[in-house]
Fold:
Amino acid sequence: MTPIDGASETRPYTGRMARKLTKPRPRQGAHLAKLRREAGLSQAELGRLVGETQQNIAFWEQSDKPPRSDVLPKMAKVLGVTVEQILDAQKPASHRRRGGPVGKAQQIFEEVSKLPRRQQEKIVDVVAAMVDQYRRKAG
Structure:
């Protein structure tokens, strides 16, 4: 890429680079972005899982408008929260999480649930051992 009018050379936009925000996010948008990050998902991944574009997810994260009512239940399921928790941007997210895997873990466990029962049991044994080992180290 050649510099124009003496401007410094810049890298071309690849679509994977996050843009810097020029103004603070509205409370609702910041809340949605926080829930998405806590689930370990990118905007594109969340969009794919709920049947929306990355651009729509970005819009909702930059807006004080919540996602459309037809998207909210799908988004709540993927993020591991309730619809009410998505809409309630006032409370800290730590008080709203419901149990169970979210984000990428949820995707993997959904795939595991399609395997034969015997293979599911082996996977559960391995995961349970890893969780137990983590708890012993942390505690």
The radius of gyration is 19 Å.
